[in-house]
Design a protein that fits this description.
- With 966 residues, this protein is of the alpha+beta class.
- It has 18 helices and 20 strands.
- Strands 2, 6, 7, 8, 11, 12, 13, 14, 16 and 18 form a ten-stranded mixed beta sheet that branches. The chain has a three-stranded antiparallel beta sheet with strand order 3-4-5, with helices on one face.
- A hairpin with a 5-residue loop joins β12 and β13.
- α3 packs across α5 and α13 crosses α17.
- The C terminus is likely disordered.
- It binds adenosine-5'-diphosphate (ADP) and magnesium ion.
- Adenosine-5'-diphosphate binds next to α4 and α7.
- GO terms for molecular function: ATP binding; microtubule binding; microtubule motor activity.
């Protein structure tokens, strides 16, 4: 209560650290901190009540933001903590954190813990009743919880579950339960949390059992939806944009804050349910702290700036706080009396003043003592007040006004009716706003439809233009085609002329060809004849030759028996001469023939001889080759042998050398011996001689052997050289023969080549002849086709000419047919365009129909969904009602029992007291009760936390909770 009544909203700013994906992306860390109250972004400083850097712990945040609020709430003030910021800026981390980790837990679990710790340390006469409730508002869903106002015109959320709690564990259970319920309904947590506000309300009521003083405090803990969607509209405080998917409640929050900051008279609290519920937190009776959560990444700079701007605006809002005291009946009565007195005195004052005014107006001058005296009036009021106080002091327990039961009932009925009306109005407002939303949607749809149809229209227009252009183009084309046709006809005439010329030419050529071919055939036949003649002549020549030979043979025979034949011939002088001449001739001939025959024989002989020689030579060659190889082998063996002999020789020489050495040695020895033993000289000499002789003979033999060996060696060498020479010769011969052979071969080859050429030439000629024939045939064929074509063309031309003549008889001119054709084509074109247009129109109609149908479908789907949800709700309500009824019955039973007990003098209470000074007892409620019984107590049953009692026991029987105070 030490704080002044008016206080500004506290705004704290918290920056989270860069998360891993931002680090991976390489984002910059943009905030620069200056002291505890300033942060600089993009060179611009922003000041708040406190700025938390990224490394601030949860505990530090709690101590700075929330600890004081706990105390305030327990002293009867209202409190609110908001977390505002874009998605994943750390709102949930700040408000909830890790609920079951002592270091990482956020503000809510710490507050819960602290509230209870605080209560345990307070005055023993206080009794606390703590009620928690939590709910979420999805910003897109239309079936949300509705907001109503209670009898003190304080808005509350209708239908949200509330629960009386008496230990931190129970609160945490409630939170966990709420979370698990949400898990069932939503799959994508992140998306969900970015689109919904989650609100946690702790309601603390306390009563001093001695003074009956009642205080109440409400603490709202709000985790707002992600602010990013609103940044372009609401955060700027501008008029709400009509774009879809806007987080309406957030933008209205922005609007409320802007209006409050600007000091506008009208604050649009009723724009959204959330601002209605939090009306007190914003510019009302509440101590409010806003924690704006920011991302430090350069990627989010824009959002961060707009978040900071929001915080700056919110900082200027002023709230007026008062303690929420609940008056007792007595206090109410006093207040009533006092007000009544005040009222009467004020009325007196008014009448007095009116009288005085009238008098002044009427021109009277009012004397000073009759003028209104404020002090006097105040004194009068004071006196009356005192009288009332005295009266009350003297009659403490007599109630002033008593309502009869009937009146009470009436009043209650009236109140109920009024509430009903209020509810109805709320419902109506809700419906109206939904309707407005729907209508807006419809407007948008219509606009869209309009735009699309306009677009279609434009498209169609463009299409039409295009088609017209095409039509023009095709007309031009047709004209061109006709021109081309004319040209073609002219061309055709020319061509046909040419063709005629060509055919004539061709005929001439073919005639020539036939002439040539006939000449060719005649030449052929001549050639044949000549061949025959040559054959014939050859034959004759051979015949003549054979006859001549025969003659010669006969002559030969005749020559052989010349004398015999000549002798018997009758001879006279004339014949004799001739005979002699003939004989001379014959003899000559005979000799010649003889010589010829001889030569012939000789030649034959030489030929056969040479053949034989050839054979022999070949054989010899083969033999020589064989021999050469043998000799080579021999040479090889001889060289080897030579080498052996050489070696032997060397050995022998070595032997000789060694022997010589021995000899020298021996002679030396002998000399020594001779010198030493002169006595024995003679014998020794003899011996020496013998030895020398022996040696001599030995050496001679040796020498002889060597010489013979050397001779042998020489012989062998000679032999080798001879053999080599022979070999050389044979090789030469062989070479020569080979060369000859080659020559023969080449001549043979040449001949065969010539023969081949001749045959090829013959073949070619034959082929050429055949080709010529084929050519002739094809030419004839082509000619035929050409002829046919010409005929056709001529026919066509004739018909055309006829037609044109007919046309000429009409007066339309030569291009009538063409015109007809053009008109036909145009007709076709028109029909086609008509069909096309029709199709386009149909298409457009269908397209128009489509969105309508889609909308209808959507509407029905929505209706079905709504009906389903309504059904579900109705079922749930029924279940709840049943439960409530059951509980009511139980409660009444309990109350009756309690009353009975009280009448009997026992003190029993339906309350679970928690008292200051008492250690936090283990939650007396059975944890299963809450869950098995659907979870929540309704407002009707209270579980209170009381001061004073050192311990309390509770027993649970049949779902009832019975508490006995010791
Ligand atoms: P929001 O509720 O604003 O969408 P969250 O609270 O879910 O964002 O935070 C997003 C992520 O960032 C979470 O994984 C959270 O643990 C982490 N985070 C937020 N603030 C901090 C902080 N101050 N220190 C460490 N991690 C944080
Ligand atoms: Mg969140």
């Amino acid at each position: 209560m030490a704080d002044p009544a008016e206080c500004t909203i506290k705004v704290m700013c918290r920056f989270r650290p860069l998360n891993s994906s931002e680090v991976v992306r390489g984002d910059r860390y943009i905030p620069k901190f200056q002291g505890e109250e300033d942060v600089i972004i993009g060179g611009k400083p922003y000041m708040f009540d406190r700025v938390f850097q990224s490394n601030t712990t949860q505990e530090q945040v709690y101590n700075a933001c929330a600890q004081k609020i706990v105390k305030d709430v327990l002293e009867g003030y209202n409190g609110t903590i908001f977390a505002y910021g874009q998605t994943s800026s750390g709102k949930t981390h700040t408000m909830e954190g890790n609920l079951h980790d002592t270091d990482a837990m956020g503000i809510i679990p710490r507050i819960v813990q602290d509230i209870f710790n605080y209560i345990y340390s307070m005055d023993e006469n206080l009794e606390f009743h703590i009620k928690v409730s939590s709910w979420e508002w999805q910003t897109v869903s239309k079936t949300n919880l509705s907001v109503h106002e209670d009898k003190n015109r304080v808005p509350y959320v209708k239908g949200c579950t509330e629960r009386f709690v008496c230990s931190p564990d129970e609160v945490m259970d409630t939170i966990d339960e709420g979370k698990s319920n949400r898990h069932v309904a939503v799959t994508n947590m992140n998306e969900h949390s970015s689109r919904s506000h989650s609100i946690f309300l702790i309601n603390v009521k306390q009563e001093n059992t001695q003074t009956e003083q009642k205080l109440s405090g409400k603490l709202y803990l709000v985790d707002l939806a992600g602010s990013e969607k609103v940044s372009k509209t609401g955060a700027e405080g501008s008029v709400l944009d009509e774009a879809k998917n806007i987080n309406k409640s957030l933008s209205s929050l922005g609007n409320v804050i802007s209006a409050l900051a600007e000091g506008t008279a009208y604050i649009p609290y009723r724009d959204s349910k959330m601002t209605r519920i939090l009306q007190d937190s914003l510019g009302g009776n509440c101590r409010t702290t806003i924690i704006i959560c920011c991302s430090p990444s350069s990627y989010n700079e824009c959002e961060t700036k707009s978040t900071l701007m929001f915080g700056q605006r919110a900082k200027t809002i002023k709230n007026t706080v008062t303690v929420n005291v609940e008056l007792t009946a007595e206090q109410w009565k006093q207040k009533y009396e006092r007000e009544k007195v005040k009222n009467t005195t004020l009325r007196n004052t008014v009448t007095w003043l009116e009288n005085e005014l009238n008098r002044w107006r009427n021109g009277e001058s009012v004397p000073v003592e009759e003028q209104f005296d404020k002090e006097k009036a105040n004194a009068e009021v004071q006196a009356l007040d005192n009288i009332i106080n005295e009266k009350q002091a003297s009659t403490p327990n007599v109630p002033g006004v008593r309502l009869t039961d009937v009146e009470k009932d009436k009043c209650e009925a009236e109140v109920v009716k009024l509430y009903k009306q209020l509810d109805d109005k709320d419902e109506e407002i809700n419906q109206q706003s939904q309707l407005a939303e729907k209508l807006k949607q419809q407007m948008l749809d219509q606009d869209e439809l309009l735009a699309s149809s306009r677009r279609d229209h434009e498209n169609l227009q463009a299409e039409l233009n295009r088609l017209q252009a095409e039509n023009e183009a095709s007309k031009d084309e047709v004209k061109e085609v006709l021109q081309a046709l004319e040209e073609l006809a002219v061309n055709y005439d020319q061509k046909s002329q040419e063709v005629e010329d060509k055919t004539k030419e061709f005929e001439a050529i073919s005639e020539e060809l036939s002439q040539k071919s006939s000449i060719l055939s005649s030449l052929d036949s001549e050639l044949q004849k000549l061949k025959e003649m040559s054959n014939h002549q050859k034959k004759r020549v051979t015949e003549m030759m054979s006859s001549l030979l025969k003659d010669l043979a006969e002559i030969g025979i005749a020559v052989g028996s010349n004398d015999i034949k000549v002798l018997p011939c009758p001879v006279n002088g004339y014949y004799n001469e001739e005979f002699t001449v003939a004989r001379l001739y014959i003899s000559k001939m005979k000799s010649e023939v003889k010589t010829m025959a001889k030569r012939c024989k000789q030649l034959e002989g030489t030929q056969s001889e040479s053949n034989q020689k050839m054979d022999e030579n070949e054989k010899e060659l083969a033999a020589c080759q064989l021999r050469i190889s043998q000799h080579e082998a021999k040479i090889k063996s001889l060289t080897e042998y030579l080498q052996n002999v050489e070696q032997k020789k060397r050995q022998l020489e070595e032997n000789v050398d060694s022997l010589n050495e021995e000899l020298v040695k021996l002679s030396a020895q002998e000399k020594v011996h001779a010198m030493e033993k002169e006595s024995e000289i003679q014998t020794a000499n003899e011996v020496k001689e013998a030895v020398e002789k022996q040696i001599h003979s030995h050496r001679d033999a040796h020498q002889k052997q060597i010489s013979s060996l050397r001779d042998e060696l020489d012989n062998k060498e000679k032999l080798i050289t001879e053999l080599q020479d022979l070999n050389q010769k044979i090789m030469l011969e062989q070479e020569r023969l080979r060369v000859e052979h080659e020559k023969l071969k080449s001549t043979d080859q040449e001949k065969s080549r010539k023969l081949h050429e001749l045959t090829v030439m013959q073949d070619r000629r034959e082929q050429a002849r055949q080709d010529l024939k084929g050519l002739e045939e094809t030419v004839a064929k082509e000619l035929q086709t050409l002829h046919n074509l010409r005929k056709l063309f001529v026919q066509d031309l004739a018909t055309r000419v006829k037609k044109s003549a007919e046309m000429d008889s009409d007066d339309t001119g030569g291009s009538a047919a063409q015109k007809q054709k053009i008109s036909f084509l145009e007709n076709n074109l028109e029909q086609l365009t008509k069909v096309h247009k029709q199709l386009v129109r149909d298409n457009a109609d269908l397209r128009c129909e489509l969105p309508k149908l889609e909308k209808r479908l959507r509407a029905t789907a929505e209706r079905v969904k709504a009906l389903e949800s309504a059904l579900k709700e109705a079922k749930e309500n029924a279940a709840r009602d049943r439960k409530r009824y059951q509980q009511e019955v139980d409660r009444i039973k309990e109350a009756v029992r309690a009353k009975n007990m009280a009448r009997r003098g026992h003190s029993a209470q339906i309350a679970k007291p928690i008292r200051p000074g008492q250690q936090p007892v283990a939650s007396p409620t059975h944890p299963n009760i809450n869950r098995s019984g659907g979870g929540f107590y309704q407002n009707s049953q209270t579980v209170s936390i009381r001061g004073g009692g050192s311990s309390s026991s509770s027993s649970i029987a049949g779902g009832d909770i019975k508490h006995e105070k010791k």
